[in-house]
Amino acid sequence: MAADGRSAERELRASAEACEKCPQLVASRSQVVFGAGDGDADLMFVGEAPGAGEDREGVPFVGASGKLLGELLAGIGMTRDDVYIANVLKCRPPENRDPRSDEIANCSPFLIGQIRLVEPIVVVTLGNFATKLLRQDDAGITVIHGQAELRSLGGRTVRLYPVFHPAAALYRRPNLELLREDFSRLPQMLADGSPDQAAVESQREAEAVPARNVAEQTEGRGAAKPPGPKPDARPQLDLF
Ligand code: SF4
Which of 165, 28, 36 is nearest to 92 (CA)? Predict the structure, then answer.
C-alpha cells in the first residue's frame, strides 16, 4: 500500500471508529473491529461480524473460528500476517444476533473502502452474509461455495470466492472437509494473478447496489433467521 493508501486507510479506520450509524450496535459494542492484516495482501477474507472475543480484543477472527482460520491458512503455507481480514459489520451485534439489513447497508461502505485500499486479487467471503452482500445475489453458501467468479468490488475486478464460515465448519464436520477442500484451491487462484481489469466498467453496477435484503435472505451460520426490518432502500452510501 502506498503512503497515500496508508493515510487513506488510517482515515477510513478513524471514520469507522467514530461511526454511530447503528444505535443498537453502538450501545452494545466495546469497540469497533475494523480489520487486521497486510494492507497489501493479495488475499482478503470477509466474515460476518465481531463476536464477543473480537469485540474484547478489537481484532477479527479470534477464538475458535480464528484458530481454525489460522490452521486453514497454515495448510496452504500462509499466515494471518499474509492476508487481510475484515467483517461485513465492524461492531458486534447484541447477543451475537444476525446483522440486520439496515446495519449491513450502513457498514458496507467501510468494507468496500477496505477492498479499494487493499486491492486484493482474491476476496474470500466466509459464509452467507458476506457472500450475499458482495455477490448481490441470493444464492446460498451451500450451493456456491468453492466457485470463484470475477466481480467488480472497490473499483476493480477481483476473484470472488465464497466458502463456508469457519464457525459453520466447527459446527458441522462435513462443512470442515468442504472448507479444507475449498482452501486448497486458493494458491492456484493467487498464482493466476490479478484478473483482467477491463471487466470493471461492465460490472460497475453490481458494486453500486446497496445491501438490499441480504439479512432477510441469509440463514447466518446455519441457524434459522428471524424476520428483520425492511431493507434500506437508500442508494449506496456517500462515503465512496
Ligand atoms: S456496524 Fe458499521 S455502520 Fe454500524 S455503527 Fe458500527 S461501524 Fe458504524
Answer: 28
